[in-house]
Structure formats: structure tokens, C-alpha cells
């Protein structure tokens, strides 16, 4: 901005040809600033997209961990159910032995 004000002050002391050159230089400076802003906006958009991808990745990793834990729990539950069935079968066998010993001989 300081350069533009400096150029404008100098333009008042210049002839018509020099003024045209100054206008061209100012237009070029504005274009360069606009190009830089556009590049920065593009960069900011890429950073936003990268951040969104990272958040999605973290969420997927968290869900994978929950899924792994859920599968582990289901496996333990199935093992528990199988274990319970085995314990119940052993209890039936013990009951049969008990009843066999309580029956009068004969």
C-alpha cells in the first residue's frame, strides 16, 4: 500500500508518458497481489481438505478399534456361552453320580 501511495505522489510530477508507465506498474503490482492472494486461498483450501481427511482417518481408526474390541467381546461371550454349556453338562454328570450313590443298592 505504501508503494502505491508513493507512486501516486510521483505521478503528479510526471508527464503523460511517465504517468502511463506508472499506471502499468501499479496494475502489475495489483495483479501480483491478487495472484498471491489467490495462491494463499488455494493453499488454505488444501489445508482444510487435509484437515478433514485427517479427521476422517482418525474417526476410522477409532471405529476400527471399537470394532476390534466389539469382536473381542463377542468372541469372549461365545466362549463364555460354550463354557457355561460345558459347566452345565458337568453339573448334570455330578448330579447323576450323586443320585447313583443315593440310590439304595440292589
How is this structure best described in words?
This protein is mainly alpha-helical. It has one domain. It is 92% helix and 0% strand. It contains two helices and no strands. Helix 1 runs antiparallel to helix 2. The longest helix has 87 residues, at 16-102. The chain is rod-shaped. The mean pLDDT is 84.
How much of the polypeptide forms β-strand, as a percent range?
A: under 5%
Overall body shape: rod-shaped
**Broad structural category:** mainly alpha
Spatial gap, N to C terminus:
117 Å
What is the share of helical residues? over 70%
Kindly give the count of domains.
1
How is this structure best summarized?
This protein has 106 residues and is an all-alpha fold. It has one domain. The protein is 92% helix and 0% strand.
Provide the descriptors you would attach to this structure in a database record.
106 residues; mainly alpha; 92% helix; 0% strand; rod-shaped
Describe the protein's topology.
Layout: H1 2-12, H2 16-102
Amino acid at each position: 500500500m505504501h508503494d502505491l501511495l508513493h507512486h501516486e505522489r510521483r505521478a503528479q510530477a510526471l508527464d503523460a508518458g511517465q504517468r502511463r508507465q506508472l499506471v502499468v506498474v501499479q496494475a502489475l503490482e495489483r495483479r501480483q497481489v491478487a495472484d498471491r492472494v489467490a495462491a494463499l486461498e488455494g493453499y488454505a483450501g488444501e489445508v482444510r481438505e487435509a484437515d478433514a481427511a485427517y479427521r476422517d482417518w482418525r474417526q476410522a481408526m477409532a471405529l476400527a478399534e471399537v470394532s476390534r474390541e466389539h469382536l473381542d467381546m463377542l468372541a469372549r461371550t461365545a466362549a463364555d456361552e460354550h463354557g457355561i454349556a460345558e459347566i452345565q453338562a458337568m453339573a448334570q454328570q455330578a448330579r447323576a453320580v450323586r443320585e447313583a450313590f443315593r440310590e439304595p443298592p440292589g
